[in-house]
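DATA SHEET
Item: assembly model
Revision: 1
Owner: S.N.
Input lines:
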Amino acid sequence: MSLFLASLGFGLVTAAVLAIAAVGFTMQFAVTDVLNLAYGAVMIASAFVAYSLNQAGVNVWIGMLAAAAAGAAGSVLLNQGIYTPFQRRGSAPVTMVIVSLGMTLIIEFGLQAIVGGTSVSYTMSQGPTVKAGGLVLTTVQLVIIGLSVVVMAGVHGLLRYSKLGKAMRATAANRSLARNCGIRTDRVVTLTWALTGALCGVAGTVFAINNGSFGATSADLFLVVILAAVFLGGPGQAYGAMAGALIIGLATEISAAYINPSYKDVVAFLALLITMAFRPGGVLGATA
Amino acid sequence: MSNAQLFYVINLLIYAGVDIIACLGLSQQFGVAGVTNFGFIIFQAAGAYTAAILSLPGQSANGGFQSYIGGWNLPFPVPWIGAMIVGGLVALPFTFLVGRRLRGDFAAVGLLITAVMANLLVTNYRPLLNGSAGLSLVPAPLQGKYNPQSQGYQWLYAALTLVLAAAVFLLVQRVTESPYGRSLRAMRDNDLVADSLGKNLLSLRAAMLVLGGMLAALSGAILVGFINLWAPSAWGYAETIVLFAAVIIGGAGSHRGAVLGAILVPVGFEEATRYIPQFGPPGLVQDLQWVAIGLLIVVFLWFRPQGVLPERRRRVGVGGPQVKPVEMPNEDVVTLAGSPWTPGPADAPSHDGVVESGAGRPISRSARSAASPDASPVLRTVGVTRDFGGVHAVADVSIEVRRGTLTGLIGPNGAGKSTLLAMLAGTIAVTSGQVIYQGADVTGVPAYRRARLGLVRTFQLASEFKRLTVMENLLSAVPANRGDTLAGALRGRRYWRRDEEAAIARARELLDRFGLSGYADTYAGDLSGGQRRLTEIMRALMAEPSLLLLDEPMAGVHPRLARQIGTQLLGLCAEGMTILMVEHELAIMDEFCDPVIVMAEGTVLATGTMAALRARTEVVEAYLVG
């Protein structure tokens, strides 16, 4: 039972990290219809921005804000500079995926050329351990969970109650129709990429914190987990991605307690393949 | 040359052969058939591992320092053949990802992730294939009889590799240049349309996965026989991207391009970096190499997406030697008025009273109506309904399309006309209700099989196969060409030449009839809007339909051309075809269609002649105002 509770705690933390990442990924897909496989590379690049500040003596949580800014800038650049021009030309979705894979190589190995192939860690304190109802978590883990809840609430507020959020949903549903209704879709798309880029930067930093150590290629496997959460919730569905993240996060960590932990991502992978094969529109069927 | 230099040259030749075989497999899958297999490297790995465990002795034989399954110690060439079989078998489970339901980019991502996971599993699970350390001491082919270290052996190995590469080139070339290859390219350009023309997408894609998998496996088997070891680090997911870079740079869809790409990227690139002085911290050069691969892909896709050696245009020749129509041995179709697309006698209407049934000549509507007053329905629907998330796009529609008529289908935007048409053709499934075609319930029959039954549709939006010529567009729709199966294609041109010539002759007649003879060798993507519509109609006719479903065939077409199309369609009906046509232009309906079905808000409002419909107020209110 204690094993289960311990893994449940880990699962909640993983789900928290995953939710931030998956919501960003799925919203990018929603407004531009691009499966941005370079998302993981941007995550790690942002995490290294926080790392360089952290090395200079800045608190990692402040570094995270810089990572968010870097993620936002990088994502907007990626979309404006690469994806949008290709889409304007009428490139097929498959071509876009190939382009995003090319960008993954460029960002990931460009980063590795700069920072080297060894793993690094943030300098930070894990804080006192907190026990609650059998769950044992460090303060940092609790902060990550709290942060994720705040971010999800923010996304919910944005999508439901703000004008920008409504414009985003309209753009996601039908871009040309949204434009004809007077929505400045180009601006909405850019803002979405800035926002999701910020989420990507935050996700990269908390992923790096949660992982302990990280290198330029650390997010390769995590991208699989992100995709599993996104597809489980239905690609493009923000609330679906949140639910998917919770399910996948818990499933991978709890299974890790009972099978070889090296295989925990296989659970996510199987969920992804089964979803793709039988319910390509997502299992959870959320509407957002 | 010193021995070291010779060994280097041999090495280079073997690597080139291996990469060429792999790239040709990928070129066939991705370049020709449009199956984006980001897990391609899995198949090379499967081949290498299979060849290894088939040729290795049992795991205890070499001191048990590595553990693996198998170890059957089988003689050459069994390991290579076994590798190809396994490579093909491994492909089968993936066919569910590349079927019709899943978007191409989603399937690609699914395959990419499968590659990542397969590598993870093999790395972490040692008993299967010795985990991350991989297999070593893999026997070279025939190493008991000859000395693999000798130069003669190595030259022979290189020669064998290159011979196999050449054989693979001829094989994929033969497949691609056949009618089957044309179907693959049609699927690549627009899979939904290929489906509606009778192409079984699942079987085409499965065949390509298996063929590509076998070739990748062969390349792996050759490689492992030479380097004698194989480990997970040799087949990271990124290696697939290198092969994709090679095919894209060489020219997707062109096998010559794939050969060039294989020499330029995996071979040339690796070798070039050998001569760059190592600088910076360890690993920097490799990192930059990956960055360069990424840059090559993005830059080429932007500046030269067709590659260095683009796919060549297949010319049939406009003024070339005229091919005489060949009398088919099994032809029992009685052609009327020299028309090559008349359906079989079973579908032919009674022609009593038809005076002017000559092809291409206008026939007055009244004359045609008199032709078959009591014609039986070719198609009818019973309470067909389609919901899209709670919206009834089509609700409880029951219609009849009588034989030999040019039936019109009109209605305001959003009336459900195109949805109804798509359900009739099987492009989308019905939520409830039945579709009865030629007396048989086809509600559950997939689109490609309905097309083969003679129920053929066109699309509202332009749907030509852009990278096929007009002639190829037409030929792609021909049913039952002997060369339109993988087996038929492999038997070579001699086997299917007569079918092809007959099809070309038929296509030429159609091109003449529609006045597009001069465009036979033009890429369909380069035509004007009106010419594309004509090409689509001709292509649908090549499919030998009994019932043709046209979705706004005259949209965006010059009114004069529209009238010509209408006249041609009437001619076809007079020859026995039945046509159901969605159209917005009332003048067209007035002139050509009888009866006309009016739809509004998902239901049928009225059916009758245009004159009768104009007299009904509710119809006029719904649609005919002004």
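QC remark: Confidence is low (pLDDT under 50) at residues 319-373 of chain B.
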